[in-house]
Amino acid sequence: MEFDRKSLEHLKKLCRIECSEEEEADILTSLQKVLGHMGQLKEVNTEGVPSCNHVLRGMLRNQMRDDEVKNLLPRDKFLGNAPDQIGGMVRVPPVLKG
Description:
39% helix; Histone, subunit A; mainly alpha; two-stranded antiparallel ribbon
């Protein structure tokens, strides 16, 4: 598919955008490159490859791992890294102000 000035004018009208002559030239060049790359995909043999309706299908279920008890950092060492502490706990700024 070839992308020309007429197609760009139509696209600008659909998107309701305005751009300068320089920007038009850049956009036209970029779109032609993208369409060129898309044309290369037609050369890829996809016979026998099942269609993919959802790219993140494998991530739709929660990926959980078992909890494991490991060596804990001593409280003094942990609190030594905290910017502020109170009563042996890390003090954080208030989230809700009442």
